[in-house]
Every structure is written in C-alpha cells, then in structure tokens.
Amino acid sequence: MKNQVFLAGLLWMSIVDVARPAAPGELPPGQPGPDKLPLYDSAAVYLLPKDRWLTFDIPPHQKILRVLTSASLSRNQPVSVSDEWAYGLRYELLTRQGKLVVTKPYECRARLTRFVDAPGAAPYTAGFFRNEPIVPLDSRTILVNLRALDERPALLRMKLESADPKVLDVGVRVYAQEQQPEHKLRIRWQRLTAARMEQFARASVYRPELLTDEEKMNLVRTTWSPVGPVGLEGREFTRRLLYTLKEVAGKPVEAPPLPEGLLLRSRLHGIVPLPEAGGQVKLVFLPIAAPGAGGPAEDVQILWYGRLLFQRSSLRVPWNDRGFSVDRQFAGGQLEVRSPRDVVLRAFLMTGTESVEITPSPSYLKTYRAEPSRPVEFPFLHVKSKTVPCRIRLWTMSDHARPDSPPATTRIRYELLDAGKNLLSSAQIVASQPGSLYTRLEDPLSSVRVSDPTSWFIDVPENVSFLRVVSELAPVLVATENRPGDMRKQTSVPEDFFRFYADRKVHRAWFPLAASDQEGLLLAGRIQLLIVQERPPVDDPDKAAGLFEWVAQYPLGRWRGRKILVPKPAESPDRPEAVPSTFVPVPRNREVRLAFRAGDGRRHVSPDLVYEGLGQSWTRLSLFVDGALLAASHVSGPDGEVVLPPVPVGAHRVRLDCSAPLRAFINYADPGKGPAMTSRLAVRLTGKPLVYDVEKRGPEAQAIMLRHFTQPKQSERATFTVDIGLPAGRATGHVNDWTFEGHAFDVRPAGGHSLPVLASRGGRSDEGQPFFVNLGNDIPAGHYRIRVTPHGHATGYLEVSQVHPGRPEKRKIFFESEVGEPEGRR
After folding, report:
1. How do residues 653-676 score in pLDDT, each as one tens digit?
2. Domain over 3-18+259-357 is classified CATH 2.60.120
3. Of the candidates 465, 437, 456, which has an alpha carbon nearest to the alpha carbon of residue 531?
4. Where are the domains of the chain?
C-alpha cells in the first residue's frame, strides 16, 4: 500500500472534528405531547415473570409464530448509542395435554435507538409508555417455527431467565398469522401509505406502482394478529400499553464509523509488530473525542521491545486533540503504544518517498459464554487411546465505566464426562484477573471490558469424552484448545518472534476446540468474538538488572568444544561474575589505560591474552604493565591464548608490542562503554545426539537457551529436535503451565560478524542464533535429561546455558599472597 493510504489517514485527521460520536451519558428523550399521539399505534405488551410461566393459546393451523420482546429501562438511566443490554428468556411448546414438545433458551441484546428529523432537532424514540417513568428499548423478534415439529403444539409459554441489572422488566407480544377475506384485500392495499407500500413490495423486482392487482392482493393477504395470554389480568399476567410510531421518518442517531486502524483507549494498549530489519516508522494518531474534551491529557508512551532482554527503549510524545504523528527509526521487534485518550492508530513503514502500511489486522478468537444455569460442553476425540493435552482459558467481564473497581473474582467448575455424559471427576478454579490492556470485544463501541485470561491445562484421560465448564457466580467467556500428545512443538527461528509477516505459516502450539451445539449457542447469543493481540514480553527485574547466575551446560559423555569470541551487547548489564569471560581489545604498539578487577574480591587477577588473525608465521608478543615487562612469548598459528602472570587489581598502563598484524584481547579488564567480547565454550556438532543433565532449581518456570553457531556465510537452515525427559506420570488434575516434551526447531543462520573460533586453525563462525525451550511450573524441581539431535545442515557448534534470576549465595575459599609476591594460579 503506497502513499495514498497514508494520505487517507491524514485526510481523516482533517475531518475528525465533524464526525464525532454522540456524547455518552445522555438521558432518554421525553414522551411526546398529546398532539403527537395520532402518529403512534398502541399495542398491549405482557410482562414476563421470572418465577412462573406466561402462557398463550396457539390458534389452529399455524405454521409460524412471531414474538416481539421489549426490555425497559428507567427514564433516569443515562444511555449512549453504543450501550447495549442483555436479557434471556425461555420458551416452551406444549400439547393441550401438557406434553413438552420443544424447550429453547433465547438470548437478546438490545439498544435504545434515537431518531432526528433534521440536523440539530430534538431526538425521539420509536416507542414509549405513557405516563410511566420507564423507556422501552428496541424490540427484538423471535420467530417460532411450527412446521417441522413431530407433534402439533397448542400452547406457547415463556418466562424470563436472566437480565442485565439495569433492565427493569421485559414485555412480550405474540402474533399469529391470519388470512384476510378476499373482499378486504383491495381496501387494505389502498389504505397503506407510500412508505408501507415500498416495504411490502421489497420482495418484488418492481416498484409498487408497477405491480399487478393480483400481486398487490397477495402481499396483503396474510397479516399478523395479536394473541393474548391465558388467564386473568392481575393474576396470571400484567399488561402494559406500548405506543409505537406508525412510520419513522427521521434518521437514527448513530456514532460515526471509526476509521480503519488499531483502536487504543486509556485502558487498551496497541501492539504493532515490526519487520525483522526494522526501518523508519511513522505512527499516525487519529483522536476520536472532540478537541478539548476531558481537559489536559498525559503524554502518549511508545515502548520498543527487541528480541533479547536488553533490547528495550521508550519515548513520550505530547498529546494533541486534533491528531498528530510520530516519525522514528526502530529496529525489528514490536511496539507497544499507550494512549491517555481514545484514538485510532495507523502505522506506516517509510521507504524513501513511499510508505507501506503495517497497521496490524485484527486477530479474532472465538469464545463461548458460560453462565451459572447454562454450561458449555466441549467434545474430545482420542487417537490411539492416548491422553489429550488441553488448554482452557476464561475471561471475566466488567464495565468500562468502573476502571478503578477491583478485579472480578469468579468460580469455575470443570467436569470430565464419559461418552454417556456421566461425571468422572470435577474440580473448581477461582479466577481473579485485572481488566486486560490488550484484549477487547469485537464491537468497538461495547461498554464491556474483558479481563486478562485465566489459563489452566489438563492431560485429558482416554476415558473422557466431554469437558463441561460451569460458571458458578457470573457469566464468563471460555475458549478451549487441544493438541496431539505426541506432536512436537514447531518453531521457526527467528521468524516466529517477528510476527510481522502475515503470509508466513503460523506454527500453532494449541488448536481451537469447538463447543457442542454451535447452532444453539449462536441463536442464544452465547458466541463472542474477542480481538486479541500479542503480549509484550514481561522482563524479569533481576535479569534486567544483571542479578542472575549464568550456568553453562555441557553434554554427558565424550565431546569436543571450542571457545568462540562473541560481541557483548552494549545494552547488557555489567556483572562481576562475567569478568573472567569478558575480553576487551588491546591495541598493538600503543599504550592504553585499563582497569583490572576481580569479581570475587581478590587483590590479584591472572588474565588471559587471546589473539587471532596472525597466520602461520612466528612472532613475539611482549606485554608491558606500568612500563614493566609482564610476559613475553613467541607464538604462531591463526589464533591462540597466552596465560599471563598475576596483575594487581586497579588501573594500569598496558602496552602490547608485536610486529605482526593481529588482533588481541585481554580479560579481567573493565570495558567501560567501549566494545567487548564474551568467550563462549560451544560443543562441536557431529550429527550425533547430545544429552544434557539440566537442573531445575525451583517450582517456577525456567528457560534453557540453545545457541547455534555456523559458518559466517552459511545460507542453509538447520534443524534440531529437542526432547525433554519428563517424569512418567505428570501431575493429575489441572496445572497453570504446560511443558512440551518435544520440540522441533527450524533455525536460520544468524549471519552478522565473522567471529574467531579459537584453537580451530583459523575457523570462523557467525554470531550464533539463539532459541529456547521452557521447563514450566507444571513440573517439579529436579534434574532432567534433555536430548538435542541435529539434522541436515545442523553443523558447526552448539552452546547450551541457563540463567537463574537472583544472585545466589556462594562460598569460596582461596589463599592470596601479600601484595608484590606472585601468588600464581590457585
């Protein structure tokens, strides 16, 4: 998409002051005066009771019934065009002898539509109750089909099952079809207004004046006649008179459609994925509210997340009621945008004089509404009589108008059923999550806010055929997913982190499971789409501050490894424990000032001098510290390492004399803000599996990092399978995490700088591509065998490591000689 897309966004910014939604919180229009009553028809509505049935006789020979429902609000209830109220009823069809033929629940959602006859005119509604402090919502229609029933029903009965707390009551009108006598048809047609004739003629390709007499008569032959309830008024039913406009000439008051883009609110952040290469990004902000509404606003926050922990940045941009844009250079990753006001965001990648829109498209998730009296069931299919891993997620709902209310707490009961729906086991889940900052209902005007999801996992036994989810307190939204138990988790590295490319194949870890009775759930309004976003990474504060222990893992048995000098990220924290493995460059034939330090409190350190790029010739290396010769050595070969005598900690003048054009590095020196390298001991890949004994130190989830080093200009991807030896019996019941036993990684070479592989006769490597496996909190602390198998082009070297947050307590005993006396290596 080129410049015209970006210009369209700017054009909307120029007209945004004209297209404004109606102000929220307006009271419903008042009742019309007596002079307006001739414009209205009156009809009796009958209030639905909750504790008993409201019954109607069905006239003979009926094929279909029409039921109109009308919920009522207090006239003092503020409403807006986006407000919606839900209520549920149940209807049953019975024979004259009382035999039940059909029973069905029905969910309705209604708004209060207001109309205006001209711009600036006073709004009005299509219906009202005279001399009563209530206002009817828009009517909802239920068509009850009687054609396909095995038995002919004689009675229709209904009752109210649920309603929004703001709904005062719900009334119904029942209509049956009635055939008009032949001699009245012409008169009925002639009495219709022009607008009503247009409505009747919609089923024809011709306008009303072009219809034949026979066609006109057929259009008015069948009419809907009201049916009254059984019993006495005041005892079996309560009647109320509803006035409705005969014809609505005005236009409905509607909120203008939002422009295309990503909707942001003060409590709804936006996530914008960026391509791996990054680039110049323009963010266009299109405010929704009128200028000046709400007073001063805070700044907009833009947070950038790279792939690694230390790749983070943020900036603030002043808010402007009339729209604004931000133009910045970002590396690959994702942006999180936080706005203090409602705004639509569009993102563009600028390439020279052109722009490509990168605003993310909505990602939808189907959920099902579980209620205390109406659970949701999910069927399971077991292949080869194996257990099926299952993930269940639920969302609670709250009101946007109460942002400071505490997280809603609800109780969920899940039941495992056999093929005959007999209960095998059940358990209770307590969910209490705050309102989500990244997920919303599909309707952008909805006043309902969903929470962060509560997730749990079950390894469903082979004798379970159904999962039933019951909400014990309040309605919740539920989604269930499963996966084959023996299927490896597929990951493309690094593409699966950069989710910018919509055309790439998505590697799903979990697959959606449809609930039973989809049609019934849809008719009852119990299927709800959510718009979800990728969550930004949650950083461990200890890791971000450098308070962690880095543990290298080496395979069991015989193996060969080499040290690789890897560039140290400038953003990574400086850790005392990493001093021995951190190398700084030492220039040739020039004195520099270096500060030596020891991470364990010693007064002396014994550095290593590493060189590379020498070739096969011999040369003499002479290292001077504070003008005195510390060490001299004749070396040859492409690279090597020289162990130096002890050096007192502190600042020193260091000079390396050498006639050959090589590069040299020394450890234990403080790099400051300059460049540095980190020494990594990686295992050489031979095509055979590598087995590691990895310790999980506590109950919390822990990640294991694998890093594949290959030739600098390698283009072929590498494949690795990783298998985790988990205990034979996983924890029974539900857990809140899931450790995948098998992984398959498709790894792209990292590229980047050409790095020296020490003691490899001039071998070179790329910067190494990291990928991760996770030991979740569903498995206990202990030792686990991890088997890594390279496939295909998986050559080069592999490093495996763990990072444990926090600074562990360590005790180390060493002897140190007096200052000035060499202590040697201990």
Report:
1. 999 999 888 899 999 999 988 899
2. yes
3. 437
4. 3-18+259-357, 34-180+221-252, 363-532, 548-561+682-805, 569-675
